Amino acid sequence: MLPELLDPLLHWFGGNPCFRVYGKGRRESEWRVVSVYASHRRDVFSGMPLWSGACTTWAADIIAVGWDFALGLLREQRTEPVSRDHPAAVIGGRLRDNSRRAAAGATRGATYCEIMAHECGHTWQARRMGPIYLPMGAALTLFREGPHPWNRFENEASEEGLFGGVVPASVNGELMRQVFV
C-alpha cells in the first residue's frame, strides 16, 4: 500500500527524469524501466553531507544521481554501450573490493555502468521488499559492502543488479547536448 502512495509522490517531486534506464535483478526474467533523476546537490563537489557523489535508489523505479554522474554515464555509454542483450554487471560482484575485482578480470575501479548496475540491484530489492525497503535501505546502506552479515544488503545489490542501457529517446535535451561537448 505504501509504495502505491509514495512512488507517485516521489515521481511528482522529482519532476522530469534526466533519462530512463533498463534495469533488473539477475533473478528477474523481465527488464523494468527505471527513472533516473539528477540533482546538483548530488554532484561530487556539491559539499552536501551524505549526498555529494551519492547515487540513491528511492523505489523500484526511481534512482537519484548527480548531474555529473548522469553525464559521465551517458558519455561512457557512447564509448562502451551496454544493452539488454549485453548488460552491465558489477565485476566480481563488488564495487570496492579491489582484490575480488582483479581476480574477476577488472583492470580499473568501478565504471559508471557498474555503479548503475548496483543501483538496479537496489531497485530489485525495493520491488521485492515493498514498504520496508526505504527504512531498511537507509539503515543498511551506510555499512557499504564487506565480509560481515551487516554488509549483505549492499553485497546483494552488487551481485544481483543488471543495467541494460539507457531507454532510447528518454534523455533530457540539455544533458544530451553536454554529452557531445
Q: What is the CA-CA span between the terminal residues?
A: 44 Å
Main sheet specs: 5 strands, mixed
Shape: globular
Compute the number of strand runs: 5
From the helix content, strand content and strand pairing, which structural class follows?
alpha+beta
How would you summarize what this structure contains?
With 181 residues, the protein is α+β, with helices and mostly antiparallel strands. It has helices spanning 2-14, 67-79, 98-103, 112-129, 133-140, 152-160, 173-179, and strands spanning 19-25, 32-39, 56-59, 62-66, 161-166.
List keywords for this structure.
181 residues; 41% helix; 7 helices; alpha+beta; five-stranded mixed β-sheet; globular
Molecular structure report:
The protein is of the alpha+beta class and 181 residues long. The protein has one domain. The protein is 41% helix and 17% strand. It contains seven helices and five strands; from the N terminus they run αββββαααααβα. Strands 3-4-2-1-5 form a five-stranded mixed beta sheet, sandwiched between helices. A hairpin with a 6-residue loop joins strand 1 and strand 2. Helix 4 packs across helix 6. The longest helix is centred in the middle third of the chain and has 18 residues. The chain is globular. The termini are far apart. The mean pLDDT is 91.
